[in-house]
Amino acid sequence: MRLFGTNDARYYCESFTICTGDSEGSIDSFVRNRLVGRGTTITEGTGVFEEYRSCSLRNAERSLFLAMSHYRRCLDHMLPSGSSWAYVTIYYGCWHAAHALLGMLGCTISTKFVIDVIRSTPGIQAFSIRRIGSTPGGEPTTYNGSHEKFWDLFYRAFIPLRPIVPPHLVAAVSPIASNPTWQIENRNNINYDTYTALKLSSDFLQSFSTTSFPNSLPGVLGTQYGIFETLLELSCLYAKNLHLETDALSSFGTGRTFNAKAKKMIYTALPNLISKSKKKLLLS
């Protein structure tokens, strides 16, 4: 898989134009409805290229917003009973941040297809579209699950770019413990195994300290949180340097920057709903 370099990615992002129709919706739906069956390449100067750019960059901005939202919301679960859900929230924050990074750099990993760069020169940029798998011309992976495939392809795509990633953020695009599926394996264990989930709660109870947060987070939770911070920081850095700006968040109000909308929708204080719940009934 091939991604844009920094200058070519900046051109790609800065050339965003508002397209209507399928490009306003889901990137997966766009791939299925507008790209599959149209051939194996998408070339700049064609209508479908502009539609794909519009859709992919909107998806990147939405993904970045959701990653930031998960970063904020995981803090609400930092207590023994919520630590397993904190982990799951952090995992999905990483998932969205990774998709945002790829989108800004000209790549989409859909459920069954990969779109990546075959020509990066501004003005004549082009992408290829092919199935994920061992079929002739496909993007090979030895993994079966959709999330396993995604992380395998994500980490391999970034191998050529690791030398230009800020050193303190290289961990964001490097497999944890040399295992590309580390994140999804641990998410599955914590999300679906009650013993593992409550073991994390017990470990959290024993180790957590607000004053030494996040260093006091136990085991895999601490590792996943650290990866999330580096991945989100790298995504935000790219968004700033590449001048990512679309209309994807227009429903949150017009005339406001991405940062202003994120602050409004993510960091605004929420009402205390405990008094509105059935806590007394459940604990009586």
Helix/strand-derived category reads alpha+beta
**Order of adjacent strands in the largest pleated sheet:** 1-4-3-2
Say how many strands there are: 4
Unreliable segments of 5+ consecutive residues: none
- Biggest pleated-sheet summary: 4 strands, antiparallel
**Rg over alpha carbons:** 20 Å
Number of spatially distinct domains: 1
Helical content band: 40-55%
Which shape, going by the Cα principal axes? globular
Give the SSE order as H and E letters. HHEHHEEEHHHHHH
Brief summary of the model shown:
The chain is an alpha+beta fold and 284 residues long. Helices cover 50% and strands 6% of the residues. The chain is globular.
Name some characteristics of this structure.
alpha+beta; globular; single chain; four-stranded antiparallel β-sheet; 10 helices; 284 residues
Notes on the protein architecture:
- This protein is of the alpha+beta class and 284 residues long.
- It has one domain.
- Helices cover 50% and strands 6% of the residues.
- The chain has 10 helices and 4 strands.
- The protein has helices at 6-14, 27-35, 47-74, 83-104, 146-157, 182-192, 194-207, 219-241, 258-266, 279-282; strands at 41-43, 108-109, 113-119, 126-131.
- Helix 3 packs antiparallel against helix 4.
- The model has no long low-confidence stretch (mean pLDDT 92).
